[in-house]
User: Fold this.
Amino acid sequence: MKLNLQEPITELGQKVYDLHLLMTIVCGVIFVAVFGVMFWSVFVHRKSAGHKAATFHESTTVEILWTIVPVFILLGMAWPATKTILAMRDTSNPDITIKATGYQWKWGYDYLKGDGEGISFTSNLSTPQPQIRNEAAKGTDYLLEVDNELVVPVGKKVRILTTANDVIHAWWVPALAVKQDAIPGFIRDTWFRAEKTGTFRGQCAELCGKDHGYMPIVVKVVTEDEYAAWVEKKKTELAAAADDPNKMYTVEELTPRGAKVFAANCAACHQANGQGLPPAFPALDGSKVVLGSQDAQIHLVMNGKSGTAMAAFKHLSDTDLAAVLTYTRNSWSNATGEVIQPSDIKMAREE
Assistant:
């Protein structure tokens, strides 16, 4: 069992680690000194030993001392802490800028500036469901593993912009000494410069709903050459996966993709069998919404529903939205035979 903070891999993280030890030692020494004197005084000067209570009061010298000494102790603690906090807020001149968007319950990453600019992906929990349901042995990184890691190069200043799509989340990786709230409608920022390669794990640190514990953060720090190779591979994959916005799909073409999108974004609430968890998360199997107007379902999924747990999913691509909507209209006992095209989604966005 670890009793201390995670081993830091950044210069600032080391300062935070050292400050934590310094403050713990200072507070520990004060605790032992104050309570030691108090208990010694109570025991040695107890009434049963023949002592009588003193009747004096007021001592200007003592009062000055117990005011001045704590002030100097607090100033001594505040000085290095303030310097470290100011350094943590200095997000100027980054080598790479990445936006981290919190969703219920996953993270989206957009590489905005620097090497890798243009790369975007979502990062979902990848722990197998049998492990979560206690039907299989739990892995080493149980609930701390994702399908897409955030990859950054070692020795580069990485600025992280945080925001959220639905509720307040927090991007927290202890080894990087980074914890920043992600708030809908606001952009906050933080930064780190990793000094060693490896895989470092964190969690959303803000209670954000039913599956709050299921949105881990994994940062993979690699060498510059490995990062360049990853960027090239990722851009090739994104180019290959780019969809033709004018293509007309069949139900059979869209439903397999829709099943994957549903599993990654919808199954946590509406369940893989479409039965949901009423009343918070209604069933989609036999749902009047799913079997009703296409336009109404598109609007609901894209924009969410105020006052309910239904979040907006307009961040998904047109084809992904078309696929998942087509999947819900043709799965379980739903058999509309209808297909929603990416062009329908594009038209809805423009309205």
